Amino acid sequence: MFEALLDHRARLAETRIADLFDADPTRADGFRAQTGDMVLDYSKTLIDQQVCEALIDLCDKADLAVKRDAMFAGAPINQTEGRAVLHRALRNLDGGPVVVDGSDVMPAVLETLSNMERFADQVRNGTLRAAGGSITDVVNIGIGGSDLGPAMVTKALSPYQDGPRCHFVSNVDGADISDTLRGLDPGRTLVIVASKTFTTIETMTNARTARAWMMEHDADPGLQFAAVSSAKDKTTEFGIHEAHVFGFADWVGGRYSVWGPVGLAVMLAIGPKAFGAFLRGGQAMDLHFQSAQWAENLPVMLALQGIWHHQICGYATRAVLPYDQRLSLLPGYLQQLEMESNGKGVTMSGETLSQPAGPVVWGAPGTNGQHAFFQLIHQGRQIIPCEFLLAAMGHEPELAHHHRLLVANCLAQSKALMQGRDLKTARAMLADRFAGDELERQARHRVFEGNRPSTTLIYPQLTPYVLGQIIAAYEHRVFVEGVILGINSFDQWGVELGKELATVLGPMVDGDVSAAENDGSTRALIEYLLKHRDTR
Ligand code: F6P
Hints:
- β10, α14 (330-342) and β11 (360-363) form a beta-alpha-beta unit.
- The chain has a six-stranded mixed sheet, sandwiched between helices. A five-stranded parallel sheet has the order 6-5-7-8-9, with helices on both faces.
- The longest helix is centred in the middle third of the chain and has 28 residues, at 264-291.
- The chain has helices at residues 3-11, 17-23, 27-30, 49-61, 64-72, 106-124, 148-156, 174-181, 201-216, 221-224, 232-238, 264-291, 298-312, 330-342, 374-379, 400-419, 423-430, 436-445, 464-485, 496-509, 520-532, and strands at residues 32-35, 38-41, 99-100, 103-104, 137-141, 165-169, 189-194, 225-229, 245-247, 317-323, 360-363, 386-391, 454-459.
- By secondary structure, the protein is of the alpha/beta class.
- α6 runs antiparallel to α12 (264-291), α14 runs parallel beside α19 (464-485) and α17 crosses α18 (436-445).
- Bound molecules: 6-O-phosphono-beta-D-fructofuranose.
- 6-O-phosphono-beta-D-fructofuranose binds at residues 143-146, 195-197, 200, 203, 254-255, 340, 492, 495.
């Protein structure tokens, strides 16, 4: 499947990205994809026209158009769970009907959205009275997709926040909920229990702890709890008032769920209007993905960079580097989106893949990363394709000089990665300080190989609309890569075994059941824990 591309890789073995610019100074105009004001510049990669064509060919060979249309039409493309994949319906504000199993799901989606809006208005304007007055703080309890999405989006859109403060608790480690609740007024706090299944052990444990905390302080969990879940029977059993429960269907995967009720904390923070703009941004990206030619299709070209770098060039990891502090949670969010979706070992039909599907995705915001791990990106022997994200404008006009510095640093990094610094230049730089062998030795430490690929996603400003575009673009990128690799991007069986074993090990850690049957390491670790456990 990748033969032609592997040949191109060999053909380009001695070519440098900078050579491609020398050959075609207008290259940046051609090697980019744009939708609205958002541009993906992929010209600083070792991709030429022939590679581009071969990559685009993969889309046709994989029947991408047919599969994309099947997803949008509500076909059960998540084959191992027998489900449609329709998170896009949650942002289909102006779209037509979306039919699943013969019925249009849009009326229910829009009704839930307007229930969320009504509830958010009541909380935000103080109509919803808690035991101690209006709500000042919201604690979202969830994990994975029920945490990473709302936490990331709330932080990213903090300039738009005009509602209650939002806090996020995910880890079952008691430190998380304890640190979060400390200092909050139980009489003025709203707890959202966010769990698609309403069975996730971490979330349910934290939810019970929060409920006990409220009751201890004479607050009313009946009034001050809300739930977002597709398991309404379980939310009722937990004691959450029906009017505070916002449901969604099983065709919304956890890591794709921020667009609907799982985004309730976001809506409370920024208000229904700004949340609507976020949805519209996502929807705009859907329309672009559905209509643009592959070569101009931003999520498709993002995906093809991924395929080129990981499958063809063999680069094992990819760094996501937002030069946008408010996107500091984006790398973590994308880790779930990409690694849970495409971290698969078999094809849709169950055959073992001959090479890894998705890369390791990691990163941190710039400029911080420059002072931490960029050393390795520039001079380490492994090549790490970098994805920069950059806004033309910040939200602090009075600090525009900060933003200019941020931008200059981002551009400097992608330029340095591409151009590098050769030995001759390094020698010349040091010639007045060193000579002979010492000059040679010192100079070698200052060589940057360069020729390291990066892409830059650039946009006017991180508004709710733009953030919606960004997230939807990454979602579609994951889908496109999954289609080309022939895997199911929408299940997550790989998380199950650990959960099952934790259930078995729990009573052993409690000391109620013998640990003797375990392997030697697990047994010894449990013995250590029992010896040192907290007996207060
Ligand atoms: O264990 C993985 C996972 O199922 C994720 O896919 C999901 O986002 C997370 O757990 C939380 O699940 P839930 O929303 O059902 O609590």
